[in-house]
Amino acid sequence: MNPLIAPSILAADFANLQQEVEMINDSVADYIHVDIMDGVFVPNISFGLPVVEAINRHAKKPLDVHLMIVEPDKYLEAFHKAGAAQITVHLEACPHLHRTVQAIKALDCKVGVAINPHTPIRLLQDIVKEVDTVLIMSVNPGFGGQEFIENTYKKIHALGELIVETGSHAKIEIDGGVSLANAKKLFEAGANVLVAGNFVFSSENPTETINKLKSIV
């Protein structure tokens, strides 16, 4: 599988949001990663439905919407209507995860399940075959620009084994601290999708940075 790149719009210049979305449209990126934070599940607040709708009006790439919120079931349909092509929920936020996954499927959205750095891969045993993507957080969720957690490689290998064992077709997505320094190693470990925020948007030439990540292997 070719490397897939999902720039995180959370790190964009919000005073020039349309321009930033159009930059991603014109790049070789595969998705636009959209982080939704509620200040409860994670210690930060990002943005909500009106901003997602605004992004979607200009986006030509699918929106990969990552819900870092409590009670995500209440908002699944709203984010679907706002433009989400994939909705990713956190295992830690969903007491009835299978029900949540089925609700996302019923909206005809792709389904992702995310896990925090401390959450063991084995907890995905009974759900991994039902999802399109598993997102491994490689930093503690809530803030951009954090240092990559090295134990992530071990978790990628474990998840890859679980995917084979269960006959799942889930992609492995990595979110947090991604850069050219670790992108190749992440892909070689078994990752399929890399989310990159600050590394892309703080670079001198974001389009070229996306291209370098895309062509790293």
From TrEMBL:
Pathway membership, UniProt: Carbohydrate degradation
Manganese recorded as keyword: yes
Reactions accelerated catalytically: D-ribulose 5-phosphate = D-xylulose 5-phosphate
A biological-process GO annotation: pentose-phosphate shunt
Keywords: Carbohydrate metabolism, Cobalt, Isomerase, Manganese, Metal-binding, Zinc
Pfam families named among the record's database cross-references: Ribul_P_3_epim
Binding, a divalent metal cation: 33, 35, 66, 175
Active site: 35 (proton acceptor), 175 (proton donor)
Similarity comment text for this entry: Belongs to the ribulose-phosphate 3-epimerase family.
Listed name of the protein: Ribulose-phosphate 3-epimerase
